[in-house]
Amino acid sequence: MPCGGSGPGPSRCLILLLVRVEVGVLLLVVRRSRGPGHGVTLRLGPHNPSARPVSSTLRLGRPLVKKPTFIVRPPESRSSAGSDRTMRRIDISIPLRPAMAAFPGDPPFTVEPVHSLARGDAYHTSRISLGSHAGTHVDPPLHFLPDGAPTDRLDLEVLNGPCTVLDVDKNHPAIQPTDLGTLPPGAVRVLFRTANSERWVQREEFFSDYVALSLPAAEELLRRGVRLVGIDSLSVESDPTGKFPVHHALLRKGVIILEGLRLQDVPPGAYDLECLPLRLQDGDGGPARAVLRTT
């Protein structure tokens, strides 16, 4: 676009550009001041009369004295980016506390005060003791396979992302392939909500007749390409023989097992799973905080 004035007299040029950045609009104003050696002022700011734009000056026809500065806030800090504000998180983890339920043979959870304000100390500090599979936790391949990956080398991308909460008929004593009918094609993460969830509400004690995943169902999940399997019991498997074929089948294929979930308040459907186990070096398990994000 030509600017008015081509002689030695004053020449001015005003260019207004509206630049759309995601859901916001920025106003870019370019002004040319008098004469060929005076320069151009760039003003960049929100398309908001009350907002203060950022200005910078550069020279035309001469070496740059000052480069233009463009300030664009990252999307998560923009007032217009409110997607995360519309999300809510559902905690599906077991609170760690003394006398909590534990799988038979696992170490109990204990906590002992070391420093206490009540005793005149300047702060609180406690000593805790727990098993590597206490409460809500992950089973890495090392749990059953001598050359399997430990907890600190699990793929965090598998532990976090879209997941499906699948409701299992409350009268089913075990999860069978027929219970997978509503699992969407291509699902990567599945959490099973069984009759266990309601029983945890009634009492926080271990019960041996919990609903678990059958071997045929585990093999069907592998066939479908599922990479994370979660369940509302302290073990994904109930095997009186002690051979644990379900664990072996899943962990051999690198599937991460997430046990000890609390899903009684979670309707079946699609969610985003956020799960981070403790980074235990060479760990055979990892207590975790697991939450579901939903709108």
Feature tags:
295 residues, Glucose Oxidase, domain 1, 2 domains, 7-stranded mixed barrel, disordered N terminus
Topology (elements, then pairings):
Layout: E1 13-21, E2 24-32, E3 40-46, E4 54-58, E5 88-91, E6 110-115, E7 125-129, E8 137-139, H1 156-159, E9 161-167, E10 174-175, E11 189-193, H2 195-202, E12 212-213, H3 215-224, E13 228-231, H4 245-252, E14 256-259, E15 269-277, E16 286-294
Parallel strand pairs: 9-11, 10-12, 11-13, 13-14
Antiparallel strand pairs: 1-2, 2-3, 3-4, 5-16, 6-7, 8-14, 8-16, 9-15, 15-16
Task: Give the terminus-to-terminus CA distance.
Answer: 48 Å
CATH topology of the largest domain: Glucose Oxidase, domain 1
Q: What is the CATH class designation of the largest domain?
A: Alpha Beta
- The percent range for helix content is 10-25%
For the record, the CATH architecture of the largest domain stands as 3-Layer(bba) Sandwich
Overall tally of domains: 2
The CATH superfamily of the largest domain is known as Putative cyclase
State the strand order across the main sheet: 8-14-13-11-9-15-16
Counting H and I runs of at least 4 residues, what is the number of helices?
Answer: 4
Helices and strands: which structural class?
A: mainly beta
The Cα radius of gyration reads 30 Å
Q: Largest sheet, described in full?
A: 7 strands, mixed, barrel
Topology order in helix (H) and strand (E) letters:
EEEEEEEEHEEEHEHEHEEE
Strand content: 25-35%
Shape: globular
Note the quaternary state here. Answer: single chain
| Overall pLDDT confidence | 82
Poorly predicted segments: 1-6, 8-44, 49-82
Give the beta-strand count: 16
